[in-house]
Amino acid sequence: xxxxxxxxxxxxxxxxxxxxxxxxxxxxxxxxxxxxxxxxxxxxxxxxxxxxxxxxxxxxxxxxxxxxxxxxxxxxxxxxxxxxxxxxxxxxxxxxxxxxxxxxxxxxxxxxxxxxxxxxxxxxxxxxxxxxxxxxxxxxxxxxxxxxxxxxxxxxxxxxxxxxxxxxxxxxxxxxxxxxxxxxxxxxxxxxxxxxxxxxxxxxxxxxxxxxxxxxxxxxxxxxxxxxxxxxxxxxxxxxxxxxxxxxxxxxxxxxxxxxxxxxxxxxxxxxxxxxxxxxxxxxxxxxxxxxxxx
Length: 295
Hints:
This protein is of the alpha/beta class. Helix content is about 65%, strand content about 10%. Strand 2 (about 110-120), helix 3 and strand 3 (about 135) form a beta-alpha-beta unit. The protein is elongated, with a radius of gyration of 29 Å.
């Protein structure tokens, strides 16, 4: 049975741990608010980008651009977006679990899989499992910049344009709320047909009403817009992942603080019982000694 001193030491240790988890929860909460703000600011830009691409694609007609070409899928590049740090609950695990399930599905169909990865956790997991990683990007998971998305997009476009892969798939956590992150699997390349074709009535009406003068030709503008679209989609995925990471970390640290509080209560109760047992034992020893002297 643990002594009172042992229990006191454990209570101090758990109390110190709770202070750390509470501080991490507050930091994650502040970062989450900033990450949400960044997502809200970039969404209008992304929506306008899609609309502009749809209008320009209609004006250019059927143009055989490399990023729009579809070919038989024999090689696929998987791009999981993970965090650089842990202590975020199941944030990294659910991304990697979904990625490995997709890999098994593709290999079952006879498709060769290559790996790109964002985040230290994803890189270390893939290397631990013996996978060969074509390229990894780290150090930006909590506060991604547009330049980070550009670097990843440049490599993905290079692989696709050089026929090294026939499809690029990005897997990331989409932010829904601080408690909910949804694993999202999206084809990055080739660019989906619905992106350049549009699909919303409002976009079609805007294209029909618009009387645009293109300089240079719409084909050249579309060719320049396609890489920007890939960068924008990756930047959105990085921002969604960053917000999801902070939400998951805030929730995990809150649960840890709550569990620490429960543990402190249980240890305090055990310490009081141990102290009571020691006092009772001392009283019995005093009574026994007094009986021996009077006897």
